[in-house]
Amino acid sequence: MSVLRRGTNLPRMGDFNQSVILEAIRRSGEGLSRIELVDATGLSAQTVTNITRRLLGDGLIEEAGRTIKGPGKPRTTLRLIPRSRLSIGVHLDPAVTTVVLLDLSGAVIARSVRRTPATDPMHVIHSMADAIEALLSRAGVDRQTIAGVGVAAPGPLDADRGTVIDPPKLHEWHRVPLRDALADATGLRVALEKDTTAAAFAEVWTGDVPPDASLLFVYLGTGVGAALVLDGEVIRGRSRNVGEVGHIIVDTDGPQCGCGRRGCVEVVCTPQAIVEQAERAGVLELGRSGDDAESVDGRLTALCRLAESGDSGALAVLARAAEHLSVLISALTNMLDVDRVVLGGPFWGRLAPVYLRELPDLLDRQSATREVRALPVAGSVVGDDVGAIGAGCVILADVLSPRASSLLLEGGAS
Amino acid sequence: MSVLRRGTNLPRMGDFNQSVILEAIRRSGEGLSRIELVDATGLSAQTVTNITRRLLGDGLIEEAGRTIKGPGKPRTTLRLIPRSRLSIGVHLDPAVTTVVLLDLSGAVIARSVRRTPATDPMHVIHSMADAIEALLSRAGVDRQTIAGVGVAAPGPLDADRGTVIDPPKLHEWHRVPLRDALADATGLRVALEKDTTAAAFAEVWTGDVPPDASLLFVYLGTGVGAALVLDGEVIRGRSRNVGEVGHIIVDTDGPQCGCGRRGCVEVVCTPQAIVEQAERAGVLELGRSGDDAESVDGRLTALCRLAESGDSGALAVLARAAEHLSVLISALTNMLDVDRVVLGGPFWGRLAPVYLRELPDLLDRQSATREVRALPVAGSVVGDDVGAIGAGCVILADVLSPRASSLLLEGGAS
Predict the structure, then answer these.
(1) In this complex, do B27 and A4 lie within 8 Å of one another by their Cβ atoms?
(2) Which one is predicted more confidently, B67 or B101?
(3) Where in the sequence is the domain holding A126, given as residue range(s)?
(4) Residue A277: its pLDDT value, please?
(5) Of residues A156, A335, A408, nearest to B332 (C-beta)
(6) Domain boundary among B54, B80, B106
(7) What is the ipTM of this complex?
């Protein structure tokens, strides 16, 4: 007999409803009364009372004064205790390693940024552990409140083994057991996630998208990646490798790619590809420096500054880059029929002025559903630390976020 | 305050578990005992007893004898009553309109195929209603058992209005209110679905994929479309238009497309594009007939027969077509990280021999996760009526299939 769907039961339902209530309180900011929670979640007054009693007992929420609204009796506001649970987010990027300490609301309590050592992977992992310890002692938090460490790394990953397979620009990293090595070095629980997927968690957890949004997240890092959120749930994929879009063709006249074809995202849309286009167009001086992460970063900054100052050559290069990116985005949004596109990642801030001007029209023209509805495009509000913050949110989401799929009983082979 | 996630409650949980049990019984074929249902679903014996009592009372299942397994007392087998609920599936294709009558197990009780009249849309819809009535009276079924009519049509659709926007090769069809017009003409409840999405429902409902499969369905019809199943749930998209992949670039040297670019799926991978490539290569005689649906169909059949007989030119054209299709499939599977690819649709049967030989290697070479896992490729087992059968399954699934998302309470604005 084949594997069958599992049912659900009362304890599962209770866990789910508890996380629904906690998320409603978390998202409200200044807090909600029990009556407001009944309205917001559709749950009965009795269920809300029982669950909030449990959350108060666990120290995750607190009563924060009474308010009088209308003729009824005063309502007690229930508010998150942000410091009751913390998480650590780490973003391993070829250039820099960012570590953040988040509270339960997703707010950054402390952060540190260090150059990623160009040494062997184990040394990098120990340096990461040092950065975490330094941050914890600087912030002076109780280690018992740390729910875990999320690490965002470039994909593809082997999620089962917790290994990073072949991250670009980190040449010695082949099948490095990042998850277990960092857990050993810190004594903390570690979860490994793709940087792009982590960014989508940050967007859902701390961004201003509705909790049931379906969105395509386009991540502009050393590589260009994507992440997918459907009905508020981040889709990780069967092997946790959603979003490998580097070889989607976006320019039939584009340069040769290592894969054997021409015009792939990887050789057209990445920061390195864009600065090379600027060099070929004579907008940037040719061959001034190498193609390491730091140099590409500096040259892209120079290009974006030129565009900002009105340089028509720089503007043309970036407008063309936006057009190529629109081909990728349209391919994915027409396939996936999401309701919005959000762009982010370490290079987004610099590219945003030109991209946000160009993309909406480009995407509208290529939309298969333009007769039915619009496709809003926005930049992430999370900022350049989106990878690290997202990695921390993976831990918070795991603890607290309601996922309809978590309602199903485990197991299933029979 | 923003829209919040909804909780779940006991009646919702009961409905979900009932559909889990019904699906377990349906999928088992010859039936299951209560003990086997407990094992298969993870639900308690008491829950299984209560729910099966209700299903027996509703006439959806029956007790079908006792079996003795091991030393315990004999177990009563519970079996689906397939004729207790029926559905009608209609596939509107530019060439032919197929109507099927399905029982609750997804088996075809009766079918009819008629040429789609090349007349105005309202005439086509009335002809569709006539075909449904003829089928019902021929099959001699009780109209009360019909749960509804599912209509599969080429996208994009306006799901809210139940209209077909601009189906290819059906030139007079612009914003035709297919759903409501057919409901008026038949007096039955009608659901409208994209043909590609309907095909995915057929695969999940009647195919032999595991109930929690994540798969990309590639639909080879007049156009090439795709559908997505994640963790056993067919993903319809926010406007129910998932799978519009016609303008993903697959051949940088391909012909000009109406969209302004070159080498899109629409001008490379469709049956019409393939027969045109065969004509340019001198494998098929040039310009023997028009580009209407019927002529393309005949010429593709001729090309596939040539390949079957060992004609090297025909084989080369089809191998190249498989390679182009692999570029599309890889773009989508690398983005979506599904665990299998299933191909189907009206042209699949003819293309299968060459495509199933070529695709596995092509996809493996292009897989971003090939170091982590394999990506099985298979043909749909549903056959050429997949669109119509799928449309009928949309109705059955709506009535009976467990969807975790259905656990959430409705509403949500507050």
Answers:
(1) yes
(2) B101
(3) 84-202+388-400
(4) 95
(5) A335
(6) B80
(7) 0.91
